[in-house]
Each structure stands twice: as structure tokens, then as C-alpha cells.
Amino acid sequence: xxxxxxxxxxxxxxxxxxxxxxxxxxxxxxxxxxxxxxxxxxxxxxxxxxxxxxxxxxxxxxxxxxxxxxxxxxxxxxxxxxxxxxxxxxxxxxxxxxxxxxxxxxxxxxxxxxxxxxxxxxxxxxxxxxxxxxxxxxxxxxxxxxxxxxxxxxxxxxxxxxxxxxxxxxxxxxxxxxxxxxxxxxxxxxxxxxxxxxxxxxxxxxxxxxxxxxxxxxxxxxxxxxxxxxxxxxxxxxxxxxxxxxxxxxxxxxxxxxxxxxxxxxxxxxxxxxxxxxxxxxxxxxxxxxxxxxxxxxxxxxxxx
Length: 305
Prior knowledge:
The protein is α/β, with parallel strands linked by helices. Among the domains are: 9-70, 3-Layer(aba) Sandwich (MutS, DNA mismatch repair protein, domain I), CATH 3.40.1170.60; 166-238, 5' to 3' exonuclease, C-terminal subdomain (DNA polymerase, domain 1), CATH 1.10.150; 240-304, no CATH class. 41% of the residues lie in helices and 12% in strands. It has eleven helices and eight strands. The protein has helices at 10-17, 42-45, 54-62, 73-87, 114-129, 141-153, 169-173, 186-194, 200-204, 208-226, 257-277, and strands spanning 2-7, 27-30, 37-40, 67-69, 94-98, 101-105, 133-138, 160-162. Strands 5-6-1-7-8 form a five-stranded mixed sheet. The protein has a three-stranded mixed sheet with strand order 3-2-4. The longest helix has 21 residues, at 257-277. It is globular and about 55 Å long. The relative contact order is 0.11.
């Protein structure tokens, strides 16, 4: 049994820790270099899309309709650490998946009402860190991610959704777009759409042989996990990562090749520093870039790197 703990609008929630006056106010946090919006309060989501540029929302700030914050990675990382330390009080097996998500193993917790236990987790994290979280519970990590997704979107869930006691879980899966399934990125989503697979339920019912042929064993594991067959184990903290990424966005339109070269050099240096710090080496190094989704498609460039 797994639980997925997902911090709600994490960067915004962090900013509100020391700005309680911003509760129920429209708040957004920008990416590095103030390139685009990467976190929105619930109030902001109604009219500010993710990845909207600063230019798009600046006039809203000038009229007092939105509070804009630049990214503060050091602060967010510290708040994330506090949340993880809190979660360690509830399970001996905690895996931090990202800065705002963590898996908890609930194997052996048969004597507890898991929904009540999850509510206790939420209340303690809120009390100790002031960060609101949602909790999804299921038999696999992939389903736990979807359960957390439901917990966030269903007001009557009160921040917790346990998929196990649901009489007809397929009904839930039919309401979730296939692109929202853990491990299904934009390209895989588009290929699945071409095959007539649009929901998590459609993917759950897909033919195993076809899935493995099209998306390898990794895709098949996702399908099996949707069928409540655990295929993805907990990964202990400290285990070396198989992939590392250093990425940033520009805070302005870049037209000079020299600016791009300078940025690539800086990010490459940072990437190498991370590898050396962990005593690792790499056999493959990839550089990629793209223009903002806020610009017209005809001016996007996808240079070979």
C-alpha cells in the first residue's frame, strides 16, 4: 500500500508561510529569471495559465489584482526538507519524488483506518510547516498519484482520497485524462490518442503486447500498475539518480546566439558540479532548447544539439 503526499501549490504555499496576509489572495510564483509562471494559488488558476509570461500578467499586478513573486529555490528546498522530516514520523519508508511530492509505504498498516491516518498526516504537516498537502492512497504508486490528483480536485474529499474502498475504481479512471497518468508525457499522450486511448481507464484496458511493443517494458509497467499490480518499488533516499537535469528559462526574449552559448556553458558547468558532488559520471549528455509556449508556433526553433 502506498500514499502519495502532494503539497498544494507548493511555491505559493511557501511564500504564504511568512505572508499570511496573502491567504485567499491571487498569488503566482515565477520561474528562474522571472521567465514564466510556475506556481499559482487556487485563486489565480481561474484566469492565469501556467507558463504565462511576466509580460502577460504584469498589468494585473499594476492594478493590484495579483501578487507576483520571483523564485526562491533555497527557501523552497528548505521548506521541502521540513515537510519530508515531518512525513518521516508517519512511515519508516519515505521516498521524496520531487520538491513537492513524496511517497510513503503503508505496508503493514492494516490496523489503521488509512483515510483517518492520512488526515492526521495532513494536519501534522500543516501544523508543523504551515504547508497544505493532499494525500492519495492506493495499492500502487501510479494509482496513488492518481488518487492524490482526485484528492485535489474533489472538494468533498477533504484533501484525502483512498482508491481502495471505492466500489467501482474504473469510474474514477474514466474521468482522468491519459496525459495525467504518471509517466505519460506529451509525446506518449499524443501517440496514445492516435490509438484511441484518451483516459486512464482506456490505458488500463489496453493490450499488453501492443503496449510493450510501442512503449517498452516501462509502458507495460504503467498499465499493470493501473490494474493494481505493484511494479514500481520504493526507492530509498540517497540512491544515485539515473538521470539529472539542469534547466532554466530566460526572463526575456533571446535573439543573440552568444546569449544562448553563455547560458549553455553555465548550465553545463552546474551539471558537472552536481555529478562531481555525488561521485558520478555520465555516458550521455544532451542539450535541448525551445521557445516559450506563449509565442507563436512559427517562430519556435528546435535546433539540433
